């Protein structure tokens, strides 16, 4: 074999290794991106973006509620809340009636599209009820709107402005509001592009 052919084969071999290396590098995610996905997962971003646009709800807020409720895993709570956004069956039935979901059955809450659509509808409903107040909306999403209305009325009867820290007696609800607000900030910082926030 001539020296020219040997060099040509070596060159092809080196180019092959370079091509494989570049392909592997293009598929691999940077370490910080992998850590972010583990700490702050995001799934179904196409559905979240679509529902955010349809219902005029912040996509980062939707993602933060899903993260806080279920960490983006389908589950049913001990209280019976279902799916990614942990919707109670009675609430889902109410949403179906109000939103025209005539074919809805509670097992549909296992479907990410329906669960996120219903959860986002409910967020929009609560935002409208509480004049865009995200804190009241989140307190109601977790503790129930009837409870929030009671707490607000009690604060107003004492001439006080409603504050979650001092007027919500349930630690779980106070912590929930804080966790969702913190997660929303993180989703805006780390997943803005995926959520269509850019």
Automatic annotation (TrEMBL):
<dbReference type="InterPro" id="IPR008258">
    <property type="entry name" value="Transglycosylase_SLT_dom_1"/>
</dbReference>
<dbReference type="InterPro" id="IPR023346">
    <property type="entry name" value="Lysozyme-like_dom_sf"/>
</dbReference>
<protein>
    <submittedName>
        <fullName>Lytic transglycosylase domain-containing protein</fullName>
    </submittedName>
</protein>
<dbReference type="Pfam" id="PF01464">
    <property type="entry name" value="SLT"/>
</dbReference>
<feature type="domain" description="Transglycosylase SLT">
    <location>
        <begin position="47"/>
        <end position="160"/>
    </location>
</feature>
